[in-house]
Each structure stands twice: as C-alpha cells, then as structure tokens.
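ok, trying the design again with the full structure, not the truncated one.
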C-alpha cells in the first residue's frame, strides 16, 4: 500500500468537428464516419475529467492545488477548444482526425507539459454520455 491519492477536475467544452480521411471518397468516408463526416461540421458537448495521482504534500495536504489544476486546464485547453471548430480553429487537427481518442491524447500532451512530472496524469473525455475514452490506459 502507498499513500497515493487520485484527485479529479471535471470541465466542459463545446466544439465542432468533422471526421474524414482526405484520401477517401465521399462514400467511403460516409460509410466509416457516418454523421460525423458531415461536410458542414457538427458539435458535441464534451465532458473532460482530468485525474492527477500523487502523494499528498506533508505540509499542504494537497496532491496538487485543484485551483491551479483548474487554471491550467482553462488556460491551455478550454481557451483553445471551447466554442471552436477543432478542424479549422486549432493547430492540432490539421493532419489527424479530431476523434475523441485524438482529442484526449492531445489534451493529455498539453497538460503533461504543465503538471509536475512526479504526478501521474490521466484524461477521460466524454463525447456523449455513453461514449468516452481514457488516455493513457493504466
Ligand atoms: Ni462527431
């Protein structure tokens, strides 16, 4: 047993996207991506859960100050993604599809740079109430 504790911050953003493979024709893209291939884009209400794991600091009792975690998520994720078109308005999905999987990996990579390396990090992203992903797999 160890003294590690998991802390979580839940956030929310709305964003539009389109899933398609450039090299494929319309019928192949429709077959694979269905409504998510709509050329005029469509939106999702994403729920983001960020999990940070570590041993609470002996003085503060915090694994990480959740206010700081919230500020980091807002500044580096929400300000870039909320009310944006993920394909057109962000730099991240020019060459990769903005699937829930790829958005989760991107958010993880952004946050990993900003959070103490001693702390474990995991991102869970809900595209709908029933469809969600986790990265990295633990
Ligand atoms: Ni979609």
């Amino acid at each position: 047993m160890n003294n590690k504790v998991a802390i979580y911050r839940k956030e929310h953003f709305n964003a539009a996207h389109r899933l398609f493979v450039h090299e494929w024709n319309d019928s192949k893209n429709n077959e694979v991506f269905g409504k998510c291939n709509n050329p005029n884009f469509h939106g999702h209400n994403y729920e983001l859960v960020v999990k940070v794991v570590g041993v609470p600091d002996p003085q503060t009792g915090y694994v990480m100050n959740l206010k700081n975690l919230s500020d980091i998520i807002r500044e580096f994720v929400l300000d870039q993604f909320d009310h944006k078109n993920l394909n057109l308005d962000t730099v991240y999905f020019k060459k990769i599809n903005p699937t829930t999987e790829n958005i989760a990996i991107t958010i993880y990579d952004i946050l990993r740079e900003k959070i103490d390396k001693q702390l474990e990090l995991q991102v869970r992203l809900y595209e709908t109430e029933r469809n969600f992903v986790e990265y990295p797999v633990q």
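Keeping the full-length input from now on. The first helix runs from residue 26 to 33.
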